[in-house]
């Protein structure tokens, strides 16, 4: 069996993983709709908060099983106090704040909007890298980021008028779009903190800490905002059966395919394949939820994809000279979007 899997090209694993990640937001919305049709005690057992909390617990169990060897005194003692503080900051931003904002956005705006506006994160990360880290970027990567940002703006500007839309910095957007943008900003800041201060921290500790502490922080914040009865149905068997199925597909299968593909492919190849995630996200929203893209989404999405394509030209050139470092950065970036973050 091992000899057979070794003969499978790395790109095949990558192309199997990307549709799984792309479908995560649509699957999250679909599961909550199923819960709404199967109330338990007058409540939806698969509320967005329950999905995020229980989903992260499932993801945490997987991460602990995969990376348990890294949690030993020898490795932990090498992590400085400054790095532990940075881990806490990243856990709050990427493990609690960003997923909480994006999950709430899924309740207020179409999944396609969340998928497209989530592409604001790479341009924001690039801008912060130039500003704070003084990084030099390829001209194609810079041009692609600007065009992708313009695509996000077009997606917002061309949206048809809806109830509860509000003017923000000259743009009219709904609460769902605003929360998605704020979530992308939180992820971008977390990425910069990780690049600047957590380069020496093993990836397993980084991901486990982010997921574990982020889950605890989210739980405490939700309790303070919504009250102690908010997670009444968190032990519902109906909820857990769906979460275990979802976790097995998104976390275990998706992450396994991606890791196998990343190890057998170049960084540039993995980055190019990963850039197709939004396309699969839009397709999943149509096939699973019946969401037909609007004119604004078609126009904005096309511009965003053009920007992504141009960025890949720069990424490929940079990856050729930074193969090893780039692989670590890319794996960390992709894994930060796995599990139950809804991005």
UniProtKB/TrEMBL annotation:
GO terms for cellular component: membrane. The keyword Protein transport does not apply. The chain crosses the membrane at residues 12-32, 44-66, 87-108, 114-133, 140-161, 173-193, 205-227, 239-260, 267-289, 295-315. It is a multi-pass membrane protein. Residues 40-156, 175-310 form the EamA domain. Coiled coil: none annotated. Keywords: Membrane, Transmembrane, Transmembrane helix. It is found in: Membrane. SUPFAM superfamilies: Multidrug resistance efflux transporter EmrE. Pfam families: EamA. InterPro entries: AA-Vitamin_Transporters, EamA_dom, EmrE-like. Belongs to the EamA transporter family. This is EamA family transporter. The lineage of its organism: Bacteria, Bacillati, Cyanobacteriota, Cyanophyceae, Gomontiellales.
């Amino acid at each position: 069996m091992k000899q057979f899997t070794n003969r499978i090209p790395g790109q095949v694993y990558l192309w199997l993983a990307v549709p799984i990640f792309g479908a995560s937001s649509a699957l999250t919305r679909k599961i909550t709709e199923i819960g709404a049709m199967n109330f338990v005690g007058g409540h939806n057992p698969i509320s967005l908060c329950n999905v995020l909390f229980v989903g992260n617990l499932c993801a945490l169990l997987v991460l602990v099983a995969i990376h348990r060897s890294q949690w030993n005194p020898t490795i932990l003692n090498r992590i400085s106090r400054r790095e532990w503080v940075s881990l806490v900051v990243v856990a709050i931003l990427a493990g609690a704040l960003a997923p909480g904002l994006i999950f709430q956005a899924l309740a207020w705006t179409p999944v396609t909007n969340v998928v497209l506006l989530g592409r604001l994160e790479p341009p924001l990360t690039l801008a912060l890298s130039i500003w704070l880290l003084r990084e030099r970027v390829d001209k194609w990567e810079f041009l692609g980021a600007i065009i992708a940002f313009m695509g996000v703006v077009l997606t917002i500007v061309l949206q048809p008028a809806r109830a509860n839309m509000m003017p923000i910095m000259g743009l009219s957007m709904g609460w769902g779009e605003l929360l998605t943008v704020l979530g992308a900003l939180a992820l971008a800041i977390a990425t910069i903190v990780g690049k600047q201060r957590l380069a020496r921290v093993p990836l397993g500790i980084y991901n486990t800490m982010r997921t574990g502490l982020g889950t605890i922080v989210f739980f405490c914040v939700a309790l303070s905002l919504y009250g102690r009865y908010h997670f009444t149905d968190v032990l519902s068997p109906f909820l857990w059966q769906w979460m275990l199925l979802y976790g097995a597909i998104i976390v275990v299968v998706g992450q396994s395919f991606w890791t196998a593909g990343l190890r057998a492919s170049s960084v540039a190849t993995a980055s190019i394949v990963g850039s197709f995630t939004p396309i699969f996200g839009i397709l999943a929203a149509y096939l699973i939820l019946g969401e037909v893209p609007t004119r604004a989404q078609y126009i904005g999405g096309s511009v965003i994809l053009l920007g992504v394509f141009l960025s890949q030209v720069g990424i490929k050139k940079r990856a050729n000279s930074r193969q090893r470092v780039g692989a670590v950065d890319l794996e960390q970036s992709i894994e930060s979007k796995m599990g139950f973050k809804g991005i």
